[in-house]
Design brief:
alpha/beta; Rossmann fold; twelve-stranded mixed β-sheet; 12 strands; 30% helix; globular; Class_I_gatase-like; transferase
């Protein structure tokens, strides 16, 4: 997929080095097609790393995608330069009069806090309410998934006895569902969080269905039957070394983290972890774009309604 992004975005050079076709605004203007409009609400502190990961996942399709990056106006980001944010990100106020074919809401390292105590929670609620009428399909990731389930369906999150970190085996429960089309019956996926969602809370909502789950990590991909919302409790977008970076960071902080499960060969952090979830991650994002964004969204984007 040619991804349409700003020419000077740092992710461009990384993606081009991986032979991913990145289209600048100037070239895209010469093409007589309507690209899919995707907005990424990036709540992660490592914004450049996260935006690169997600753009990489959105690249595996013949469709052209026009990507906007959104930040919270009510939160100050300490880990990303203000210059980068001012150059490449827009606020909800700048985007709320537009409509989008798809939206991705990332995770955030705030899962230990009650939702209402997160400083940008009111603004996030406004965005989630807006998405119902202005975005055709939204994918929520990790804490974003928990926030979306809580806001839209009042499904709570629960503090775990200890952080779940590592890669875990998952099973496909509904193999005919288009989002998991092509998945193996069992597959690996990464998780990194302190809280969880319980399947019994999900199952009381007939409008939701659990597509995949893990006996160790719990419900994994939860779908609204309408196809307008997907909630992914793991981090499919993570790169090979992302969990390693988090583990070494927490060691340096003196938190005393447990080693990520099923991740380092021989539980030796000096060894390179195998990249066991890459194919299913790519398939999940491409299925979402194909079956729930491209094929379902109205041709005239102004026709998107709740």
């Amino acid at each position: 997929m040619p991804i349409r992004i700003q020419d000077s975005l740092p992710a461009r050079h990384v993606l081009e080095s991986e032979n991913i076709f990145v289209m600048t605004h100037e070239r895209a203007m010469s093409q007589d097609i309507r690209p899919l409009k995707i907005v990424i609400l990036n709540l992660m502190p490592t914004k450049i790393e996260t935006e690169t990961q997600l753009l990489r996942q959105l690249s595996n399709s013949p469709l052209q995608v026009d990507v906007e990056l959104m930040q919270m106006a009510t939160h100050f980001s300490k880990n990303t330069s203000q210059t980068h944010l001012n150059t490449f990100y827009k606020t909800f106020a700048e985007l709320k009069n537009q409509k989008f074919d798809g939206m991705i809401v990332t995770g955030a390292p705030v899962e230990k806090l009650p939702f209402e105590q997160v400083d940008y929670w009111p603004e996030l609620c406004d965005i989630m309410a807006w998405s119902r009428k202005n975005v055709y399909s939204t994918m929520y990731i990790c804490w974003g998934a928990q926030a979306g389930l809580y806001y839209h369906y009042r499904i709570p999150k629960y503090l775990l006895a200890k952080k779940i970190s590592g890669i875990f085996m998952h099973s496909v429960l509904l193999p005919l569902h288009p989002l998991v089309r092509g998945f193996d019956d069992d597959f690996w996926a990464p998780h990194s969080r302190y809280t969880g969602t319980r399947r019994e809370d999900i199952l009381v909502h007939p409008e939701l269905e659990i597509l995949t789950e893990s006996k160790d990590a719990g419900p994994h991909i939860i779908a609204a039957k309408s196809g307008r919302q997907f909630f992914v409790t793991g981090h499919e977008e993570y790169e090979r070394d992302t969990l390693k970076k988090e583990y070494l960071r927490d060691l340096k902080k003196g938190i005393g983290p447990e080693m990520p499960k099923n991740y380092f060969p021989d539980n030796d952090s000096a060894k390179e972890p195998p990249f066991l979830w890459r194919s299913h991650a790519s398939l999940m994002f491409s299925n979402w774009l194909n079956y729930y964004v491209y094929q379902q969204t109205p041709y005239d984007i102004k026709d998107i309604t709740e």
